[in-house]
Amino acid sequence: MNFQDIIKKSIVEQFQGADGATGANIVLSLAVSVLIALYLFVVYRFFVRKSLYNINLNIAIVGMTVVTTAIILTIQSNLILSLGMVGALSIVRYRTAVKDPMDLFFLFWSVGNGVMCGARQYWLALMVTVVLTVVVFVLMHFPAVKAPYVLVVNGKKEGLEDNVTNLLEEYCSYYKVKSRNMDKEFERMVIEVRTKSDKDLVEQLGKIEGAKVSLLTYEGDIVG
């Protein structure tokens, strides 16, 4: 018997000696996965902002937990079937864009729970679920730095920048010009600002003759 035969025999014996997916194991695994999936349904609805909540995605999270459990139960005691399943799943491509990183987190969470339930690691799945819930809750309520504003000012070029700069120095703790566009008569400025008196700032800027002012909140980089 050569080394290759020893490896083959070891792998085959490992799968043959594995505790197969009996009826009781299947029922218990699916029951636990359904309970955890329903818990994820509630947690996702609670944590995700109402403006971004997607009921279809939440249902998909529940379904992915149960489906992943079923796949693990199917392949865990059959080497040939497991290799075929891996090959079949490797060619699947999803084109739906995930808009919120929290959605991607919950999708991976559901898949992870499905794998643990399918492998009959129930206590591990429950512990991970509890720990992640606490961690997400703490981080979601952790005080964050207030995001800066984007100030857009349009008006006649003559004297506009000097007047705007004087008001920014008075009402803002920080400001930075991100873009500046101008022609013969008019100028447009996009400025990142941090201020506690946003209402007063807009009112004073609006008093500049011929100026049009917009103050926006943003997340991410400004494209000038």
Structure overview:
- With 224 residues, this protein is of the alpha+beta class.
- The protein has 2 domains: 3-140, no CATH class; 149-217, ACT-like. Chain A, domain 2 (Alpha-Beta Plaits, 2-Layer Sandwich), CATH 3.30.70.1150.
- Helix content is 58%, strand content 14%.
- The protein contains 8 helices and 4 strands, in the order ααααααβαββαβ.
- The protein has a 4-stranded antiparallel sheet with strand order 2-3-1-4, covered by helices on one side.
- Helix 2 (23-47) runs antiparallel to helix 5 (101-118).
- It is elongated and about 80 Å long.
Major sheet: size, sense and barrel closure? 4 strands, antiparallel
Strand residues, percent: 5-15%
In sequence order, what are the helices and strands, one letter per element?
HHHHHHEHEEHE
On the 0 to 100 scale, the average pLDDT is: 78
Described by the principal axes of the CA atoms, the overall outline is: elongated
What is the spatial order of strands in the main beta sheet? Answer: 2-3-1-4
Number of domains: 2
Q: Helical stretch count?
A: 8
Residue ranges: pLDDT <50 for 5 or more in a row?
Answer: none
Distance between the termini: 71 Å
Structure summary, number of beta strands: 4
Level of helix content?
55-70%
- What structural class do the secondary elements suggest? alpha+beta
The whole-angstrom Rg is 29 Å
